[in-house]
């Protein structure tokens, strides 16, 4: 995946943090009944008026749960992508907070795309959730999103 960003309004800052998070199996979309899990990578951006290219490969990703040691095998289970100046990652088996500075002004993403790999339209067996399972996973995802928004506001 490559992320092209114009951060010209931030050129006065020397370096900026970009936390790219991939949520997998949200709402049991890929494997019903199994929990969602996150993988992240922290990228550094130089404050600049120029467009910058950020590429993310599977090998760079770290699970945000220290109990998960397996790398993300492929992009098949990714259901959500978020890009933020702060978040969590895991280094040497320990959770680490990334407290980047809140972005000021507008942001622009240009030419966001997946590169390489093959798309498989295969669905897992039993890919239908019960109404109760769907509601619980939906509520959990909303709660998680609200917590991230709160953390982002706090970083300002």
Tell me what you see in this structure.
- This protein is of the alpha+beta class and 156 residues long.
- It has one domain (2-155).
- It has 1 helix and 9 strands, in the order βββββββββα.
- It has one helix at residues 131-155; strands spanning 2-6, 15-24, 37-46, 51-55, 62-63, 78-84, 86-91, 94-99, 108-113.
- The strands form 3 sheets. The chain has a 4-stranded antiparallel sheet, with no helix packed on it. A 3-stranded antiparallel sheet has the order 4-1-9, with no helix packed on it. Strands 7-8 form a two-stranded antiparallel sheet.
- A hairpin with a 2-residue loop joins β7 (86-91) and β8 (94-99).
- The longest helix is centred in the C-terminal third of the chain and has 25 residues, at 131-155.
Strand content: 35-45%
**Low-confidence blocks of residues:** 1-14
Distance between the termini: 28 Å
Number of domains: 1
Secondary-structure element series: EEEEEEEEEH
Give the overall silhouette: globular
Q: What value does the average pLDDT take? A: 79
In short:
By secondary structure, the protein is an alpha+beta fold.
How are the secondary structure elements laid out?
Layout: E1 2-6, E2 15-24, E3 37-46, E4 51-55, E5 62-63, E6 78-84, E7 86-91, E8 94-99, E9 108-113, H1 131-155
Antiparallel strand pairs: 1-4, 1-9, 2-3, 2-6, 3-5, 7-8
């Amino acid at each position: 995946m490559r992320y092209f960003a114009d951060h010209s309004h931030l050129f006065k800052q020397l370096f900026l943090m970009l936390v790219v998070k991939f949520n997998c199996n949200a709402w049991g979309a890929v494997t019903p009944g199994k929990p969602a899990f996150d993988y992240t990578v922290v990228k550094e951006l130089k404050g600049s008026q120029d467009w910058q290219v950020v590429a993310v490969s599977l090998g760079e990703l770290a699970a945000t749960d220290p109990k998960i040691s397996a790398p993300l095998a492929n992009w098949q289970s990714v259901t959500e992508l978020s890009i933020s100046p702060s978040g969590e990652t895991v280094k040497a088996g320990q959770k680490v907070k990334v407290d980047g500075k809140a972005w000021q002004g507008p942001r622009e993403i240009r030419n966001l795309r997946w590169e390489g790999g093959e798309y498989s339209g295969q669905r897992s067996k039993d890919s239908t959730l019960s109404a109760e399972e769907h509601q619980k996973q939906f509520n959990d995802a909303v709660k998680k999103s609200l917590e991230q928004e709160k953390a982002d506001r706090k970083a300002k």
